[in-house]
Structures are given as structure tokens and as C-alpha cells.
Amino acid sequence: xxxxxxLLQYPFMQRALICGVAISLCAALIGVVLVLKRYSMIxxxxxxxxxxxxxxxxxxxxPEMYVAIPIVIIASFIILLIxxxxxxxxxxxxxxxxxxxxxxxxxxxxxxxxxxxxxxxYMFGSILTLKPSDVAISVILSVLMIMAYFxxxxxxxxxxxxEKYAKVCGINVTFYQFLIALFTALVVVIGMRMMGTLLxxxxxxxxxxxxxxxxxxxxxxxxxxxxxSILCFLFGLVISSLLNLPTGASIVMVYIGVLVLSIIWKxxxx
Amino acid sequence: xxxxxxxxxxTTYNGHTAIKDITFNISQGEYVxxxxxxxxxxxxxxxxxxxxxxxxxxEIIKHIEPDKISYLAQNNLVDINFPxxxxxIIMTGIQRHGKLPxxxxxxxxxxxxxxxxxxxxxxxNRQIGELSGGQRQRVMLARALIRNPELLILDEPCSGLDIxxxxxxxxxxxRLNKETGLTIxxxxxxxxxxxxxxxxxxxxxxxxxxxxxxxxxxxxFQNDVExx
Lengths: 270, 228
What we know:
The structure holds two protein chains of two kinds.
Chain A: H1 2-7, H2 11-36, H3 42-60, H4 64-86, H5 91-111, H6 117-124, H7 132-151, H8 153-161, H9 163-168, H10 173-195, H11 200-214, H12 218-243, H13 247-269
Helix pairs in contact in A: 2-7, 2-10, 2-11, 2-12, 3-4, 3-5, 3-10, 3-11, 4-5, 4-10, 6-10, 7-10, 10-11, 11-12, 11-13, 12-13
Chain B: E1 2-13, E2 16-27, E3 31-35, H1 42-50, E4 57-62, E5 69-72, H2 86-92, H3 105-117, H4 133-145, E6 151-155, H5 163-180, E7 183-187, E8 200-205, E9 207-213, H6 214-227
């Protein structure tokens, strides 16, 4: 316990805690919509796009966030639009975009300075790289996103459950699809420093998948998802600090543990 | 008074002409059964009226606010394990364009009224996938009715349901039509089960083949069956 209190004295740890809780909350909320709409892989695809965008920013010597945010948002809109048109085979779009983005990122990185520590940190995440400006951006974007999510909560549920019926009711479904794409892109961009571009999608997908097994209502799933997400993040952060392991990977391992427990729990309850 | 006028409507679906030369009117308070074989264009016609399908030509003149039209589709259950309670789903029926996405006190009062009317008060907090086919369809009817429609469009609402549940469902529709004056336009295969002597039957096979009373409609089907 003392070790943990000591750890919290470090500014980098405080930043990680603030950023982590904010991003865990946002990722859990948008994850519920993405998992139920069967768009789970969008987060993974956007992670690869974020990697390409960050590689580009490093080459051009521009602030990473300013390059990554617009590129990931645009990619998110394109993926969602094409996926919708393709219907069941929408995952093909995500596979193509993520492969192309990863290839682009690798080539750009190789041409530039090769796989240095900056690139490694972006790919696998590091709490040490979080700057005070990252905390500010994360908190502002998270607060805006959470406010928008709660404002449009009923609409998001309606569109997640039955998009056709929403259209019949005159709801502007395209607007909400873009809103979902925007939220997803923001979560990826905010969370990539901590989780890494390769693992950011797990922050979106795991809490929702676990929560789905344990609840029977949409509201219950959203609340449970947030609780699981924040607890797993805190536990993963502690483990990574104690054992000196990468934070993103530690959090994912905690998720896997909780998922296994939820499967066992469900079997016992049945 | 006509609430819908359809003139020379034509819609193509996946490159095929699904419906053409469709012309008929629907008056307020009517109970219209749309019949026809599978693939005759019933669903396409209904979807074109509510705006889910685009028409190629013709006119659909609505003398009714779009908010006053409600729809109940075939096979409503999107995903059997979807984590949503019946209440969460029914409440979405209140949402409409231009209205803030919040539920007010009067919306909850309306919810209670509808649940009482359809006798589903006991099941509203259960997950939708846990309900039987008949209960699910009543939940979907509640979602359609909660917005207080003047015209209810139903696309084969009883497909896949057993005969007793089907009869029960049509009794509810009859009651709504007779007691509240709700206009009903319904694609169906169960003309024998409707039990509404005032109902009108429109038979389509790409275009309108018959438009008349329930009595004449049943005779026509009887003759068809004997001929086959």
C-alpha cells in the first residue's frame, strides 16, 4: 500500500491516473455501442491508422495530436460509411484500411529514423510519455464526449437496437452514425499514448464484452462496462508499476482475467 | 377522409420491379389488409409508404403528420441476446425528429397506459430475448402504439407465431381499430383470422389485383384455392 501511495507522488503517475480514468470511462461507453452494433474491429483499424498518423507526424516534426486527431476522425467516418454499405462483409473494409495504414506507417518510420523509442512507445503505450498537455486534451475531450453521450443516450440506444425503426421515426440516423465514428476516433486518439496503437481497441471492446455477459439491460451494460473499465485500468496500472511491465499490456491481461472469471460466473449462475 | 393517397406507384428492388401501377386511397379509421403471395411486393409497398424504400415514380400523398404514422416490422428481434429490457425498447417509440432525446413525465404515463392496454405490465423489466414470440410481438406493438399514431402500418406481424397467439394479436388490433379509430394497414397471410367484418382487402401481385370487402376477399381466396 505504501508503495502505491509513494507511486502517486510522481507527477507522471498522477497524469497516468487522470488520463487513464478519463479514457477508460469514454472507451467503455462507446464500446457498448460498437460491440452491440458489431463494429468491434473499428477500434483496431483506427489504432493502425493512428500509428500511420503518428509516424507521419514524427517525419514532419509536427505535434502528434494535431496530425492524428483529424486523420483518425476522417478514417473513422470512411470506415463506418463503407462498412455500412457493405453490410455483413463490412469487416473487409477495416482489414484493408488497417493493413494499408500499418504498411504506410512502417514504411514512413523506416525511411525516417527506423523503429526508435518514440515509435515503440506509440505502438505499445507508455505512461512515461504522457505530458501535461496530453492530460489537458484527454480531460477536455473526455468531458465533452461524456456530456454528448449522456445527452444523446436515448437516441444512441435506439439506433444501436434498431436503426431501421429509428429511420421510420424520422431520426437522422446518419448524424448519429457520424457521432459514433467521432467518439470512436477520439477514444483512439486520446488513449493511444497510454495503451499503444496496437492495444487501444481492447480498451473499447473488453469492458463491453464482459458487461454484456453480466447484465440484461442496455443501461446496466453501460454502467457495468464503465465500472469494469475503470477497475481493470487501476488494477492494470498497479500491476504494471509493481512488476515493471508495459501498462497497456498489463491492462489487457487484467481484462482477460476478468473475462475468464465472468465466463465461469455465468456458467455457475446458469 | 383520405389520410393516404397512392397514385401509380412504382418501386424497384435489387433491379427488379417489385411494385408498379399501384393506386389506392386509405381513409381514416379503415382496417386494410394487404394480401398476396410471397414476393408479390407487399413489404416493398409498405416500406415505400413509410420511406424505407425509395419510389421510382408515382405519388404518395399523406394527409397526416409523419409523426402520426407508426410501423411494426416482420421479425423485429434484431439479436436474441441483445441486452435491452422490454421497457427500454418500448420507450424508443416516443422518440421523434425535432424532439429532445429525453423522456418526460407524460411519456412515462403513456408507457404505463400502453402496457396496461396490452397486458404486458409484468414483463416490461425482462430482457427482450427472454420473452416468448407472442410477448415480444406485443412489446413491439407497444413501441409502435406509444407514439399515439393515427395510422399503424404492420408488415406480417404474426409470421412465425402460433395460431392462438396470432388470434390474440388480431383481437387486439380489432379492438384498437373499433374503439380508438386507429387506421390499420397490414400485410398479412392470415385473412381467415382477422375477424373484422368491416376490413378491406387489397390483393397485390406487383400491381393491385383486387380491392374490396373482407367478404369478397375471402370468396376470392376460396375460389383461388379450389382452382388450384
